[in-house]
Amino acid sequence: MTQASTLLQQAESQCHIRGVRFTPIRRRVLEMIAENGGGLKAYDLLDKLSTEHAAARPPTVYRALEFLIDQGLVHRIESQNSYVACACPEHAHGFQLLICRHCGYVEELHLDEISAQLAALAKSRGFNVERQTIELQGLCQDCRTASE
């Protein structure tokens, strides 16, 4: 079983448990993102989706992305305005992303203590954190090795 098919099964299960609809379009958008491995932009998704569904338009993709983000199935890479599948959709806490600037590889980390420390620091200053995005950019092992 591939990682993408595992993520799709987890997504179906999470949506069923939460009582939300995992429509064919939402499923296909998640599948395309999961199969990519790196970040995919909304218009890249639209290009791929429109070859399969002639009626696909930007709102179709953006609504699917909004749903997938709300359900914790996809993360937005803020610095690239792209999207990556959540490697651990049952994980309800903060996350961090390692992003290779050369090949686009993205790895998700779950260092809850870092998220908690930042939230506590913000709270001590009277700030209520609603969303936290931590992106670390650099070179992955493969790209570093290839450049040596």
From TrEMBL:
It holds the Pfam family FUR. GO terms for biological process: negative regulation of DNA-templated transcription; regulation of secondary metabolite biosynthetic process. The keyword Disulfide bond does not apply. It is found in: Cytoplasm. The keyword Iron applies. Its cofactor is Zn(2+). Binds 1 zinc ion per subunit. Keywords: Cytoplasm, DNA-binding, Iron, Metal-binding, Repressor, Transcription, Transcription regulation, Zinc. GO terms for cellular component: cytosol. It comes from the Bacteria. SUPFAM superfamilies: Winged helix' DNA-binding domain. Homodimer. This is Ferric uptake regulation protein. It comes from Halomonas campaniensis. The lineage of its organism: Bacteria, Pseudomonadati, Pseudomonadota, Gammaproteobacteria, Oceanospirillales. The gene is fur.
